[in-house]
Write a structure and sequence with these properties.
By secondary structure, this protein is mainly β. It is 8% helix and 44% strand. Strand 2 and strand 3 form a beta hairpin.
Length: 170
């Protein structure tokens, strides 16, 4: 099962060093033990609140899997770290999740340096290093865009909306 995990820098999770590839635990219970991850990438931010001091990982959960049923959190006995995601890539995965689960984030999402806006004419601004995602929903069509405030192409404190768009049927 594909899932997401955030860690401290250098793949540390509560003092334990995770390895690239397969990590194994003896038991999986969401409330107590196992390797924790989430099928909703944004859920990870509630456990690692400072995304600028964390790493984002695309993972595969296998073995014994226990799901909490509340916020897409899971615990597993086998967690494979497939690849590290940049913050920009993490946000694109979050947007894909929102498009598949639109009821979960009807107003979008904002946390620290990550801002996802939705609506007929979504607009957002941010600080240097922020990632902004736009989901325009209008007349049965959806358009998506993601930018990073880099002070070269996109500037801090400027309000942005979608310029170029890729449209798919809703």
């Amino acid at each position: 099962m594909l899932c997401y995990k955030m860690t401290e820098k250098d793949r540390r999770c509560r003092g334990v060093q995770l390895q690239r590839g397969l990590n194994v635990e003896k038991a999986a219970n969401c409330a107590q033990n196992g390797w924790h991850a989430a099928t909703d990438p944004l859920c990870c931010l509630s456990y690692y609140p400072n995304e600028d001091k964390s790493e984002f990982w695309l993972c595969n959960a296998s073995g014994d899997i226990d799901e909490d049923g509340n916020d897409e959190k899971l615990s597993c006995t086998e967690l494979t770290l497939l690849r590290q995601l940049s913050k920009f890539e993490f946000v694109t995965h979050a947007v894909a999740y929102i498009l598949k689960n639109p009821e979960k984030y009807p107003q979008g999402f904002s946390h620290g340096s990550i801002h996802i806006v939705r609506g007929v004419d979504p607009k957002a601004s941010g600080a240097l290093g922020d990632v902004l995602a736009f989901i325009r929903e209008c007349e049965g069509e959806i358009a998506v865009g993601v930018i990073e405030i880099d002070d070269k192409f996109y500037y801090p404190s400027v309000c942005y909306t979608l310029k170029e768009e890729v449209t798919v049927d809703a």
